[in-house]
Each structure stands twice: as C-alpha cells, then as structure tokens.
C-alpha cells in the first residue's frame, strides 16, 4: 500500500474520536505517515461528524483529497452523506441493520443533501 484515503463518519459522541485516534496510532506505529481532519458541528451529541484521512508509505499530501478508498459508516447518515465521496471500486463499510433506513427519516441530515 502506498496511499490510502478514508472517511469514518458517525454521530458525535458515538466513538468517532476514539476510533480515529486508534487507527492513527496504529498506522503511525507501523511506519506510515498520516494526515487527518475532523469535521464536526458545535453541539454536544448526535449531529453527523466525520474524519477524512490519508495514510501514506511515502510523502504525505499537502491537503486531503477526494475520492476516498474507504467510507466506514457508524450510522446510516454517513452512508447517505459520503457515498459519492467513494471512488469507483472503493469499499463501503456499514452496519447492514441500516439497510432499511430511509434518508428522509434522519432528522439531523442536512436539508440540501435530502433535496439532492
């Protein structure tokens, strides 16, 4: 692996920060460089949040880019929000219990995304 780009998304307060820290530590400990950015809303719990990261065996990019190789979803909102950020042939990791969730039923989902 020379470079891996990923997004991990889920509700604030759902373990996203811990997951990101563990992955970053594991990649760095294995000798890879990692750059990541956390996107979150200014509330305590519940709204969508995500980490966008690039792991590299060579030189790290100056900024994060799309599309990503993996989208790991801790909730259905992440699937709907970041599906188009996934490269062709990329991997979507999600809980199959979310298969029946309709995007219209997600109260925290951005109106612009629901309308598109």
Structure description:
- This protein is an alpha/beta fold and 116 residues long.
- 22% of the residues lie in helices and 34% in strands.
- The protein has one domain (3-115): Pyruvate-ferredoxin Oxidoreductase, domain 3.
- The protein has a five-stranded mixed beta sheet with strand order 2-3-1-4-5, with helices on both faces.
- The longest helix has 14 residues, at 16-29.
- It starts with a strand and ends with a helix.
- The mean pLDDT is 87.
Which helices and strands appear, and what pairs or packs with what?
Elements: E1 3-11, H1 16-29, E2 33-39, E3 48-56, E4 68-73, H2 76-82, E5 86-93, H3 111-115
Parallel strand pairs: 1-4, 4-5
Antiparallel strand pairs: 1-3, 2-3
The shape is globular
CATH architecture: 3-Layer(aba) Sandwich
- The CATH class, by name, is Alpha Beta
Q: Strand order within the widest sheet?
A: 2-3-1-4-5
Average pLDDT across residues? 87
| Helix/strand order, N-terminal first | EHEEEHEH
Rg calculated over all Cα atoms: 14 Å
Low-confidence residue ranges:
none
The count of helical stretches stands at: 3
CATH topology: Pyruvate-ferredoxin Oxidoreductase, domain 3
The major beta sheet can be summarized as: 5 strands, mixed
Number of strands: 5
Instruction: Assign a percent range to the helix content.
Output: 10-25%
């Amino acid at each position: 692996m020379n470079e891996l780009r990923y997004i991990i998304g889920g509700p604030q307060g759902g373990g996203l920060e811990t997951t990101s820290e563990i992955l970053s530590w594991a990649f760095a400990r294995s000798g890879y460089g990692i750059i990541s950015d956390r996107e979150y809303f200014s509330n305590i719990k519940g709204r969508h949040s995500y980490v966008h990261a690039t792991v590299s065996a060579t030189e790290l990019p100056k900024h994060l880019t799309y599309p990503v190789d993996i989208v790991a979803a801790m909730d259905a909102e992440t699937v709907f929000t970041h599906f188009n950020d996934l490269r062709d042939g990329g991997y979507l990791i999600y809980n199959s219990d979310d298969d029946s969730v309709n995007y219209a039923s997600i109260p925290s989902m951005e109106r612009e995304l629901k309308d598109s």
